[in-house]
Write a structure and sequence with these properties.
Layout: H1 2-33, H2 39-85, E1 92-97, E2 102-107
Antiparallel strand pairs: 1-2
Length: 109
């Protein structure tokens, strides 16, 4: 699921970049077709497009971070619930192995 989330947000990021480049090309085309648009106006338009893209990129990255944190939290909660299933088991004990950052099932003494 984590890979799916990363892929989803990477696609959003790529789409935003593509749209930004298309907007820049459109602005350049508009400038060449309209005699009354100066190079300074074109530069300002491109700067505006890039600022918008930067803002969009930042938002996408923050959404990605938030989604991955939420997924990690859910994963940790589910692992703890799974480990608690074995609390009353007379033969198996589930313990956290901090060396490998994972739970392990061990035989109860």
């Amino acid at each position: 699921k984590q890979a799916e989330l990363k892929e989803q947000f990477d696609k959003k990021y790529d789409d935003a970049l593509l749209q930004s480049k298309l907007d820049e090309k459109r602005a350049i085309k508009d400038q060449s077709e309209r005699d009354n648009m100066s190079k300074e106006e074109l530069s300002n338009k491109i700067i505006q497009i890039r600022k918008h893209y930067d803002s969009t990129k930042d938002n996408i990255m923050q959404e990605k971070i938030d989604a991955l944190k939420s997924l990690d939290k859910t994963y940790d909660e589910n692992l703890k619930k799974f480990a608690q299933i074995y609390d009353l088991d007379p033969y198996v004990k589930v313990v956290w192995n901090s060396d490998y950052s994972k739970y392990e099932a061990v035989k109860k003494n």
